[in-house]
Design goal:
The chain is of the alpha/beta class. It has helices at about 5-20, 35-45, 75-85, 95-100, 115-120, 125-140, 150-165, 195-200, 200-215, 220-230, and strands spanning about 1-5, 25-30, 50-55, 90, 145, 170-175, 235-245, 260-270, 270-280. It has ten helices and nine strands.
């Protein structure tokens, strides 16, 4: 396994691999890897000859009061997991290399990014799309794998790849969950034991939505009200948003008549958690019965 820290070296390596006829699979991460990330690696491995995993805690996608400085990091642990999982290259640049002095170009999307997490985290998706565009240019992937847990992010990246003509196939991987149903996240480590138990309110709310949908409820606001009522019983929980949106356009719907995404963000103590469910179900949300 090769570890590359220089953007220039990464691009030169990718160019050489492409010239040699290799198919490159990219797994972008911010590190502190867990089983969710490992599932992305497995998916990339099935579709590529060479798997590149990037580890970069991207400062431009964090707001001024968010957790950039304390975001969990453990490169040695991550490298060991990558080696065991069959990663060929780890790309691990520093912020100064990705955003050198005088950097002033950013990628911005003006429709899909306005709601959900984009409404409460201004500038977040500009940072995400900018760094992913740079990673596409530096690693030159044929395929890039993203998790469904960050559903809005994944949809935005699909749109960016289409609109900016990146020659890369975007593959979505199912949410990987803990045994009790909590979506895997590096931020789960922030939770105290009590908060960890209370965090199950996210998946319980999604189960409420699924149950009502299966029973024939198609009024979006009725479903949202029922979801919110359950979360409000949890002492440490504060709802950021609960939304039912069109899967493709990410626009809120009042009446469910087409495939939709039920998405929510909840603050548990000081920890921001997200989860989602697709209806009709397509297997990506992996929500237990």
């Amino acid at each position: 396994m090769n570890i590359i820290t220089s953007p220039e070296d990464m691009q030169k390596t990718a160019l050489a691999l492409r010239r040699a006829g290799k198919r490159i699979g990219l797994v972008p991460t911010m590190g502190f890897l867990h089983e969710g990330h490992l599932s992305l690696i497995k998916l990339a491995r099935r579709q590529a000859n060479v798997v590149v995993l990037s580890i970069f805690v991207n400062p431009t996608q964090f707001g001024p009061n968010e957790d950039f400085s304390r975001y969990p990091r453990d490169f040695e642990r991550d490298a060991a997991l990558c080696k065991a999982a069959g990663v060929d290259i780890i790309f691990n640049p520093v912020p100064e290399a990705m955003y050198p002095a005088g950097y002033s170009v950013h990628v911005e999307e003006n429709a899909l990014s306005k709601g959900l997490c984009g409404a409460s985290r201004p500038g977040h998706f500009r940072g995400v799309l900018t760094v992913v565009a740079k990673l596409f240019n530096l690693t030159l992937p044929d395929v890039a794998v993203f998790g469904q847990k960050d559903a809005q992010q994944a949809r935005l990246i699909q749109q960016m790849a289409r609109d900016l003509n990146f020659p890369v196939t975007i593959v979505l991987a199912p949410i990987i969950r803990e045994a009790d149903g909590l979506a895997k996240s590096s931020r789960n480590t922030y939770l105290s034991p009590a908060e960890r138990r209370e965090a199950l309110c996210l998946q319980q709310a999604l189960k409420t939505a699924r149950r009502l949908y299966r029973e024939g409820e198609r009024d979006g606001q009725q479903i949202i009200t029922a979801m919110k009522s359950g979360i409000e019983q949890i002492h440490s929980a504060r709802v950021d948003y609960i939304a039912i949106v069109d899967r493709d356009k990410l626009q809120r719907v009042q009446r469910i008549e087409a495939p939709i995404l039920v998405a929510l963000a909840v603050q548990i103590g000081k920890t921001h958690l997200i989860d989602n469910l697709t209806l009709p179900e397509d297997g990506l949300s992996n929500l237990p019965e």
